[in-house]
Design brief:
Blueprint (H helix, E strand, L loop, with lengths): L6 E5 L4 H13 L6 E8 L1 H5 L10 H24 L3 E8 L2 H12 L3 E6 L4 H17 L4 E5 L10 E5 L3 H17 L3 E6 L9 H15 L3 E6 L3 H11 L5 E4 L5 H17 L4 E4 L2
Parallel strand pairs: 1-2, 1-4, 2-3, 4-5, 6-7, 6-9, 7-8, 9-10
Antiparallel strand pairs: 5-10
Length: 278
């Protein structure tokens, strides 16, 4: 599946997850149309966290982190350049999410690509927190991949809607992906309870009008039950190569629930997930 962004930011380090992420980027983006900006972060606060208070000179540790960050960037740039991409690498300093966001803004990239490894335990918590932190700080889509993603799926692209502005952005993004790949869309809406919930069929009918105008093949699927589980199960049944979902600009109390849905989809998906911010 080709992802049609003209420029992307890819955070890298020397881990297996970063290696997988680089491989994914080189597979799904076109070298003649996509510029890739790799960034590696040296977090000085994180470097010194937990160190004995008697250790006042952290220069050797910081130097080691800088060397590793530069090595990660240089290696990624070399791999991308060998595949014909325009690629640059930079080392940033500060908190990870804010530093990545600065890289995105500086290079005016259209998206961020990150990768996660484990879906259990501490690694799962860190992956979810990291993705959520990026979503809070950036205004570009984030593509989340997993080291065990199934990349050979050939079904329709799955897009989850709920009638919100963020979901409308996700639908437009999914249409863009579908056009580029000559694929259809499987448009999901999970019925929610509550006085403020828009009926699923109304959401789907609104989406149908937009997709028809875009001249993309599609199916409408009204679902019930746990939102994240319904999205994941139906994407799996349809052999979807990607799930596209939006995030909401809602009050904090509502955002907590929504965040749990998006995080659950990110963590448990077996295909890449594109998260589109409002």
């Amino acid at each position: 599946m080709i992802v049609p962004f003209k420029s992307v930011t890819v955070p890298v380090d020397l881990s297996e997850t970063a290696d997988q992420c680089i491989a994914y980027v080189l597979e799904v983006f076109k070298p003649d149309t996509t510029a890739v900006y790799f960034c590696s972060v040296v977090d000085s606060a994180g470097a010194c966290y937990g160190a004995p208070t008697a250790v006042l000179n952290s220069d050797p540790l910081m130097k080691a982190l800088e060397v590793a960050a530069r090595s990660a960037c240089d290696g990624a740039v070399t791999r991308a350049s060998e595949r014909g991409f325009f690629a640059l690498g930079s080392v940033g300093y500060g908190a990870t999410t804010s530093t990545i966001d600065r890289c995105v803004r500086a290079n005016r990239t259209e998206a961020i690509v990150i990768s996660t490894y484990s879906r259990i335990g501490l690694a799962r918590l860190i992956a979810g927190t990291f993705a959520e932190g990026l979503l809070e700080s950036t205004n570009v889509p984030i593509i989340v991949t997993h080291v065990d993603d199934e990349l050979s799926c050939r079904g329709p692209i799955a897009v989850a809607l709920d009638g919100s502005g963020a979901a409308a952005g996700a639908l437009q993004m999914a249409i863009r992906f579908a056009r580029e790949n000559g694929q259809g869309l499987s448009i999901f809406c999970v019925a929610e309870s509550g006085a403020h919930a828009k009926p699923a069929m109304d959401v789907l009918e609104d989406a149908a009008a937009i997709v028809r105008e875009a001249q993309v093949d599609f199916e409408l699927v009204a679902l019930e039950g746990n939102v994240a589980e319904a999205i994941l199960e139906n994407a799996r049944r349809r052999n979807s190569p990607m799930i596209v979902i939006g995030t909401h600009g809602r009050p904090p109390a509502e955002r907590i629930f929504l965040g749990s849905v998006v995080t659950a989809v990110i963590e448990r998906a077996r295909v890449p997930v594109t998260v589109v911010p409002l």
